[in-house]
Amino acid sequence: MVPESGDDRAGARHVPRIGVTGPDRGGFGAWLATWLALARVGAQAVRITPRRGLPDDALDGFVIGGGADVGWQQWESVPEGAGDADRRLLDLILFPLIALLRLLTGKRQRAADNAARDRLELSCLELARAARKPVLGICRGAQLVNVFLGGRLRRDLAAFYEEGRAVSSVLPRKRIFIEPDSGLARALGRTHCRVNALHRQAIDDRHLGEGLVVVAHEASGVVQAVESNGPWRVLGVQWHPEYMPQRREQLGLFASLVAQSDSRHGAQ
After folding, report:
1. Model-level pTM greater than 0.90?
2. Residue 185 CA to chain centroid, in angstroms?
3. Residue 76: helix, strand or coil by DSSP?
4. Is 36 within 8 Å of 62 (Cβ atoms)?
5. Pairwise pLDDT comparison (172 vs 111), residue with the higher score
6. CATH assignment of 17-267, given 3.40.50.10190, 3.40.50.880, 3.40.190.10, 3.60.15.10?
């Protein structure tokens, strides 16, 4: 059984508690994958949905999860080496299971549900900014971070793929390029990699949120990641690292979030 919450034992090392947002209906596959990723890097995931609301106990950081598109009516912009064989085998085994889990646990989201989730996650971001708690935004979550900070989104990406078809797959089929001196590059331990692609919208690099910089893109020019290096540490990625648990570099994103939240706790 996947735990929903818990308490640190007296005298034990502080275990960072990371709030993970998602919808009321469906989304269990993403929650399970994110819970596992955080557990693997020494953190406790706490599920947050509109119906559950924020927990009473303090959180050390947030994962703003993926899912249905951010409400565009309000925010639309104008128009490798050793071990590769073993990793490919894991790909063949894990990705069909992940795709099946998403199919079985996903539910069509209603407009009212999406609006409630938008409000909840914006309040989470407000709380995180006020307390300077680190945030990892995943796909929709990255887009919402940009919106929260005053940026806009591109709703129609067709113009980016005039000479080719846009990739849409839970498999890591899209190659991205990462700024070498970025926090993202340090977390991943590389300056390029392949990621999955399940999005229909993207961050508009013409209208970035305050304090954000683009740190990864694909060959077409679509933004793949943004981050802020100010006192409030935020990273937003367009892909779903939780669906690639066998890839060490993707686990590094969760490890980086936990390290930031843990160091911040120690400084208090």
Report:
1. no
2. 16
3. strand
4. no
5. 172
6. 3.40.50.880
